[in-house]
From TrEMBL:
Keywords, in A-Z order: Membrane, Sugar transport, Symport, Transmembrane, Transmembrane helix, Transport
Pfam families linked to this entry: Sugar_tr
Lipid bilayer topology: Multi-pass membrane protein
GO molecular function, one term: symporter activity
Cell compartments where the protein resides: Membrane
Organism of derivation: Brassica campestris (Field mustard)
The protein's name in its UniProt record: Major facilitator superfamily (MFS) profile domain-containing protein
Recorded superkingdom: Eukaryota
GO cellular component: membrane
UniProt xrefs under InterPro entries: MFS_dom, MFS_STP/MST-like_plant, MFS_sugar_transport-like, MFS_trans_sf, STP/PLT_plant, Sugar/inositol_transpt, Sugar_transporter_CS
Family indicated by similarity: Belongs to the major facilitator superfamily. Sugar transporter (TC 2.A.1.1) family.
Length: 514
């Protein structure tokens, strides 16, 4: 089994480049792609708490919310209200599948541009919405934007970054997501205090700002060397590689990119090929990572923190404030991953974060269970409510440096060029599907499963932690076009990788790694 746990795979070259200002600036701008996703994640929960918004579009929910003696667990249960939040993710799922072709054929930056553009139009529909139809059309356009950006940005960052710093650079995407969430919650905090409809209109309309940032960013960004070679611009690709690596000594990496591209040319249909046995490890991991990421239950906090805090008896203002605090903690803790992921590796963070989330979730479930029981009525004292907020912060911190950042990093770095776009699209599509499901079902689940909901997610966190331990090899410092060697050396996945893909047999690789 040793092959599964090696951190330094035998035969893998390490180019050891220095960090250049060009690659830093490029990845910094590229990471803006996470802002639209984050802004939306953060804005919806708060807006669906604003009374003028509910009165205007969801009068039934508004009435229910105001009624006294309501079962706390069921206060906000409305399928239509959750559809407002979750419709975006279905649209993102569909668009990520188209985005994969655009990313491959026209380059990563045009997918990013399209993402910003559709998000921009969506923000106008939402900010000026007069009826529920405008609201939903706007959400769908925003969703298209998110699908394009999430499909292209992580791949862009992973290809641009030097291999020894790929984790840190790719994490820029998650930093941008969380930054978007925090800014959105701060905006909600202020707009919620405005009278009439202007508050929610500002919140939804301001989505145009991150959209413009991505559009402008995408126009000035260069494309990745991998994508330039893939599209036949070999000379330009070499110059680009030399300029982002800050040296002319890039022959080895360049040759790897050329080889990867040659191999990828044999593949005419990435979608059909990803189903071949030799890509089984990548396919399974790119399906399970986003599935598990969503089953951590994080979006219960992201979307519904304000709702959850109100359920715990906080006032509307205190709820938004608490949501802001959890967002800021998540942002700070994401940097833990930025600074450690290339040193300690992906596996350590996944395993540590998983255990932390598991313990805090069980504790939250127990506390809410004791206070509200199964009937869902009762009063929670200030100290207990603060303790629950603290536990939520511990949970969010664990997520931030494990599944939050790595969910996007791992899927974008494990697939060979010929299926990379399709693999990333699969990652986004699965992620969006389960984001949709959690968003759509959470309030109903809370209403029926009550505090048991936290145990439900804890069981999944337990399973996913075991899964990582057994099935995910370490990928830190491995050049992206040499990833096949990592799979070949793994105790289980090795059997799927043909010898010619790495030039050695699985037995030899595993022997070397013991
Ligand atoms: C996840 C989102 C989540 C966000 C913030 C991202 O990595 O994909 O679903 O809302 O992190 O926690």
């Amino acid at each position: 089994m040793a092959g599964g746990f090696v951190s330094q795979t035998p035969g893998v070259r390490n180019y050891n480049y220095k960090l250049t200002p060009k690659v830093f600036v490029t990845c910094f701008i590229g990471a803006f792609g996470g802002l639209i996703f984050g802004y939306d994640l953060g804005i919806s929960g708060g807006v669906t708490q604003m009374e003028p918004f509910l009165e205007e579009f969801f009068p039934d929910v508004h009435r229910k919310m105001k009624s006294a003696h309501q079962n706390e667990y069921c206060r906000f249960d409305s399928q239509l209200l959750t559809l407002f939040t979750s419709s975006l993710y279905l649209a993102a799922l569909v668009s990520s599948l188209f985005a994969s072709t655009i990313t491959r054929v026209f380059g990563r930056k045009w997918s990013m541009f399209l993402g910003g553009f559709t998000f921009f139009i969506g923000s106008a529909f939402n900010g000026f919405a007069q009826n529920i139809a405008m609201l939903l059309i706007g959400r769908i356009l925003l969703g298209f934007g998110v699908g394009f950006a999430n499909q292209s940005v992580p791949v862009y960052l992973s290809e641009m970054a030097p291999p020894n710093l790929r984790g840190a650079f790719n994490n820029g995407f998650q930093v941008a997501i969380i930054f978007g969430i925090v800014v959105a919650t701060i905006i909600n905090y202020f707009t919620a205090q405005l009278k009439g409809n202007i508050g929610w209109r500002i919140s939804l309309g301001l989505a145009c700002v991150p959209a413009m940032m991505i559009m402008i960013g995408a126009l000035i960004l260069p494309d990745t060397p991998n994508s330039l070679i893939e599209r036949g611009f070999t000379d330009k690709a070499k110059q680009m590689l030399q300029s982002i690596r800050g040296t002319n000594e890039v022959d080895e990496e360049f040759q790897d990119l050329i080889d990867a591209s040659e191999e990828s040319k044999q593949v005419k249909h990435p979608w059909k090929n990803i189903l071949l046995p030799r890509y089984r490890p990548q396919l399974i991991i790119t399906c399970f990572i986003p599935f598990f990421q969503q089953l951590t239950g994080i979006n219960v906090i992201t979307f519904y923190a304000p709702v959850l805090f109100q359920t715990l008896g906080f006032g509307s203002k205190a709820s938004l404030l608490s949501a802001m605090v959890t967002g800021i903690i998540e942002l700070l803790c994401t940097f833990v991953s930025v600074f450690t992921v290339d040193r300690f590796g992906r596996r350590v963070l996944f395993l540590q974060g998983g255990i932390q989330m598991l313990i805090s979730q069980i504790a939250i479930g127990v506390m809410i269970g004791v206070k509200f029981g199964t009937v869902g009525t009762g009063d929670i004292g200030k100290t207990d409510a603060n303790l629950i907020v603290a536990l939520i912060c511990i949970y969010v911190a664990g997520f931030a440096w494990s599944w939050g950042t790595l969910g996007w990093l791992v899927a974008s770095e494990i697939a060979p060029l010929e299926i990379r776009s399709a693999a990333q699209a699969t990652n986004v599509a699965v992620n969006m599907f389960f984001t949709f499901l959690v968003a759509q079902l959470f309030l109903t689940m809370l209403c029926h499963m009550k505090f048991g909901l936290f145990f439900f997610f804890a069981v999944f966190v337990f399973i996913m932690t075991i899964f990582i331990y057994l099935m995910l090899p370490e990928t830190k410092n491995v050049p992206i076009e040499e990833m096949n060697r990592v799979w070949k050396a793994h105790w289980f996945w090795g059997r799927f990788i043909p010898d010619e893909a790495v030039g050695v047999s699985a037995a030899e690789m595993q022997q070397k790694s013991v």
